[in-house]
Amino acid sequence: MCSLSIGVNNICDLILNGGGMDVFHHCPTELKAAHPTAKPPTNHPSGADPMSNKTSCRYAFPSLLAAVLFCALFGVQVGSVFAQDKPPANTVCLDCHDDRATSLDGTAHSLSGGKSGGTEARIACVDCHEGDRRHWEDDPDQYAMTNPSKVKATTEARLCSKCHQNAHQQNMLEKNIHVTNDVNCSACHSVHESKHTVLLKKAEPGLCFGCHQNAEGRFAKPYRHPVSDGIVKCSDCHMALDETRRELSLNGTNMCTKCHAEFEGPFPYEHQATVDYSTEEGGCISCHDPHGSYLPRMLKQPYEAPHFQLCSQCHSVPGHNSNVEHGTRWSGVPCNDCHTDIHGSYSNRLFVSESLKGQGCFNAGCHQL
Predict the structure, then answer these.
(1) CB within 10 Å: which end of the chain, N or C, has fewer?
(2) Helix 153-160 crosses helix 167-174 at what angle (to 10 degrees)?
């Protein structure tokens, strides 16, 4: 069988001229020798105008059908010369770009990692660098190949997803805030030059801090995740968001419970502020700042007197300060002194400590659990 590429213009000529193009002459000598009885198609009847409407309509369909059958019979591949086409092996590319293969050694993109060894690897240069076959057959400067790092983020994400079909890559195709801001895969990853895990350009968190300087400053606060210490990585939290339906935003409790499993539940009595599936758009980060805070437990606001800012966003706290039953006995007491199971409770709807029973809070005529 032979592989023959017939240009679009030639196909149009075939349709309009009713078989006037001699497809047979485009086939290599080897095919002609293998099929000595094959004859080129005949031209239009004498005197017919190949460009007349009647002649074109009369011969267009039979001629096109004949061309398709001819190609199917002799193994000819009809296609445009502008279509993506792979060279016989990576050696074609390495004749000019020999230094680029070395930069891939030891990575998943290595050109010597194929089943047959050598340059016949599972990954070919043109899997990433798409373009015109005339780049290696004719003029490489005039017919330049695609540089994935120079295309739009959505285009490169689709290119990488041909092989990388994990949750992160799917996120990049759909809703990731990086791609929506035209930050492409190559902004973080370097296929040819990286010496870091997952081909990152720099190690975390330095790579992330290159764009997110505000987060870097918050990690300097006294109560924080130990990211700058190298104990926790940015991707430990932010990659988990790829597995949710939410954007890279201040929601999504699933990433927090990877480490803080004791707060995951499910609880019979849920605190709506902690669940990210409620209509109130709650979640751990409704109360906590994971990058850092000046308050214990990385809280965004204090829950102590006199204003109880954190809790009073949703609850009417002042009633605890002064009432006819207790006077000012509980005035100024932090909310969490009584409501200890604030992430959810297995025993009561008020999330209060069982120790309060000893103080008579749940006696007849008083509070009900």
Answers:
(1) N
(2) 150
Provide the domain limits for residue 309.
Answer: 297-359
How many structural domains comprise the chain?
Answer: 4
Report which of 281, 240, 230, 282 is spatially closest to residue 260, judged by C-alpha positions: 240
On whether residue 97 sits in a domain, the answer given is no
| Residue 341 in domain | yes
- Specify the pLDDT at position 113: 52
Last residue of a domain, one of 267, 286, 305: 286
Domain match, 316 and 276 both: no
d(Cα 289, Cα 297) in Å, to the nearest integer?
9
Q: Which of 286, 309, 341 is the last residue of a domain?
A: 286
Residue 102 lies in a domain: no
187 and 222 together in one domain: no
CA 265 from chain center: how many Å?
Answer: 30
In which band, very low, low, confident or very high, does the pLDDT at 195 lie, cut at 50, 70 and 90?
Answer: confident
Whether the pLDDT of residue 138 is over 50: the answer is: yes
User: Rounded mean pLDDT of 157-182?
Assistant: 84
More confident residue, 24 or 106: 106
Give the tens place of pLDDT for each residue, 45-85.
Answer: 444 444 444 444 455 566 666 665 655 554 444 333 333 45
- Together in a domain, 306 and 346: yes
CB 254 within 8 A of CB 285: no
Band (pLDDT 50/70/90 cuts) for residue 115 is very low
Residue 154 belongs to some domain of the structure: yes
Evaluate if residue 282 carries a pLDDT over 50. yes
Cβ-proximal residues to 31 (8 Å cutoff; 6+ apart), any chain: 2, 74, 75
Same domain as 265, residue 219 = yes
